[in-house]
């Protein structure tokens, strides 16, 4: 409207608010991701909904460079490599495909974390580089390509519609004729500061911080915290007895996609750690856990997507004696990888064939497999072995095997290739693990509703918990050890659909309640701890810890209380649930054995930025990331405006000169008294 | 220029208070308030021009007292021209600078349906206003000097007409054409008042 005080900027630009950029990540030798120019990249919009539309961009269109609005179904390797090779493309905006592409979409590698696992030319060379089994055949490797133009994701369908409308109004070529100016254009800003590789950017950052008063850091290592907890409390600042054996249960809690901070990770991460949390809760229900012969450590590794940051750091800490446990203490290792998409209720057990060639290891692995199989009696889970011919899938267990031949098993829902056709992509959503809710439920009702997925994961958790109990030396009846599908369902809702729900709000500390954003994402990021780590820590504390009768001061300062055993336990003051009638919460103190341990790759501790042994992933820094659309005028109109202005300027200068020179001709002396002659 | 700035500040304060006190969703009311704001601003600008005239009159007396030969080094006509020019330049700068800042970006006006010629027409409108303010300065001071109130009234009416015609935008013909016509009239009038005549103009143009 004319009378709302529109500033000129609002007349020109429409900002796009709900977008996600693709950012630059670097490792020891390469840079991946996308980069824009420092003042943004501009281009005329062209909507590409089928492959033929690309010809306009690549060859026919008369107004290069173009900014492409790509339909999500065309976001594949073939199209992207065509766009990468041309200079007529200045940027790309991808509209999410709804529904997800039916043939699958994974921008990850076909062989995830290759080169950082256990298989190499010195150990099981026939299994290295996915020679035997390609784990992610749908993988296009797009996330690991380097693009020199910006790529953004349009999350909001309304914004995509606005762009398409602008395109329809101004840019559509009618019957092959050239569209006329003004044309609809888009500008994307995502300038990244780091270049080449981690070695270069860390060297530059360290030079800056050593010599500059105002250091300009260009990249940050990916880091966060691992969450670990033990069934029987141990002294977290001391060392565990070498004779004491511990069984490690592990899952990863992070995922990734092509775009920054978009990582729903439903099947690749959430399904496994939710099952793990449910198994931990189930185990704590056994009556004789303090009498068990072996301890159990529940470990949640962060950063596993990026060449095993969390697990490689824990192994390093164990080797260097910086962790309460040492590698000698580990009796066996159970890992849960993607477990939500079981076919015919089969859960596969993967083992490492190379280490099993050793007799003693083979005996222990056999024992482990037998206990697992026997624990699945009576549950709707069939455990089957993947066999000697199969290597281990990409898992944190591989990092432990690199250090020591520990007997271990990795449980997944796939025998060879992943069942997950959206591994590490933005389509790895609750729909991918078949989570369905009936229509018309309120958020509270949705939180409490038990989905079939939750029931299936609860069964897996029960089997795992019972097997762990037997492994730890428990002799009693395991029928009490049962995972609760309600808890699993609430966790799935919180970690996949809405983090800001009443249960999560009641179990976190009062001063961090601002972290509960809307759509949950599980990217490891560079500022820590991320929301996921916090929530896993507090959920684990809630499920496995005990409420103790301490006041707020005693809970926050446990060293002052004599019986608190500060080294064995962690105390947290949580805000409690909301009374239905009042607006205040009833906080309480939770005592648990949940600790955080730093998950920063040892390469950064050792300052070996070119390391091929440890993960060297860093994320570039940037100043601003935004996107906007507007109309561009033709070159001719711009030139005309400029020339008219210059002409008027010259004319006025000439006129002033002549009027000044001939002023006595133009102006007669006025006859008013008291006035001065000019 | 400073006086014009102060008048603009005061009138925008009044308009701002009026807008905040009213319902932002009522389109007609907002448009009415804007029209009221513009008219009030015009009247305030002319009032400040009058105040400036009074100030300069006092200044001339002081300059006459200080000078050696009892004559002021600057005539009131020169002051009128400079005052008008100052007001014009400041109002021009105020109109154009934020437009120019946004014109530096890659986009042009039009995505919401506005005319593409927005920058060009704004530039021409600014030019005509700068000229008009200069001529009005001469007319106004002459009117004050010789107690000819109808000259002052004519300036105020012309100013109201030009500002009012901008409400015809984006029908740029409705605002630019009347403004240029009024500028021609004001230019001729100011020229005649400054000592020009048709014979002088003919002699100038024929390069005698």
Overview of the structural elements:
The complex is a heterodimer of chains A (678) and B (208). In chain A, β6 (66-71), α3 and β7 form a beta-alpha-beta unit. Chain A contains 18 helices and 23 strands. Chain A has 678 residues and is α/β, with parallel strands linked by helices. Chain A has three domains: 7-191 and 625-636, no CATH class; 223-543 and 593-600, Aminopeptidase (3-Layer(aba) Sandwich), CATH 3.40.630; 546-592, no CATH class. Chain A starts with 7 loop residues before the first helix and ends in a 12-residue tail after the last helix. Chain A binds chain B through residues 1-5, 7-9, 11-14, 42, 166, 182, 184-185, 187, 628-633, 637, 641, 644-645, 648, 662, 665-670, 675-676, 678, and chain B through 19, 27, 30-31, 34, 71-78, 98-99, 102, 105-112, 114, 116, 118-120, 123, 127, 169, 194-197, 200-201, 203-204, 208. Chain A: Residues 21-194 form the Nicastrin small lobe domain.
Task: Count the DSSP helices of chain B.
Answer: 7
The number of domains of chain B:
1
Task: Report strand order across the widest sheet of chain A.
Answer: 1-23-9-5-6-7-8-2
Order of helices and strands of chain B: HHHHHHH
Q: Which two chains have the most extensive interface, and how many residues on each?
A: A-B, 39 and 41 residues
- What's the overall average pLDDT of chain B, rounded? 87
Q: Number of helical segments of chain A?
A: 18
Amino- and carboxy-terminal Cα gap of chain A = 51 Å
User: Any idea what the CATH architecture of the largest domain in chain A is?
Assistant: 3-Layer(aba) Sandwich
Please render the helix and strand layout as text.
The complex is a heterodimer of chains A (678) and B (208).
Chain A: H1 8-12, E1 14-16, E2 19-21, E3 25-26, E4 31-32, E5 41-48, H2 54-60, E6 66-71, H3 77-84, E7 89-95, E8 151-154, H4 157-170, E9 183-192, H5 198-211, E10 219-221, E11 223-230, E12 246-252, H6 266-283, E13 295-301, H7 309-319, E14 330-336, E15 346-350, H8 359-375, E16 382-385, H9 397-403, E17 408-412, H10 443-448, H11 452-471, H12 485-496, H13 502-507, H14 531-544, E18 546-548, H15 552-556, E19 570-574, E20 588-592, E21 594-600, H16 602-605, E22 618-620, E23 622-632, H17 635-661, H18 663-666
Parallel strand pairs in A: 5-6, 6-7, 7-8, 12-13, 12-14, 14-17, 15-16
Antiparallel strand pairs in A: 1-23, 2-8, 3-4, 3-22, 5-9, 9-23, 10-22, 11-13, 11-21, 15-17, 18-20, 19-20
Helix pairs in contact in A: 6-11, 6-12, 6-14, 7-9, 8-11, 11-12
Chain B: H1 2-21, H2 27-66, H3 76-103, H4 118-145, H5 149-165, H6 172-193, H7 198-205
Helix pairs in contact in B: 1-2, 2-3, 2-5, 3-4, 4-5, 4-6, 5-6
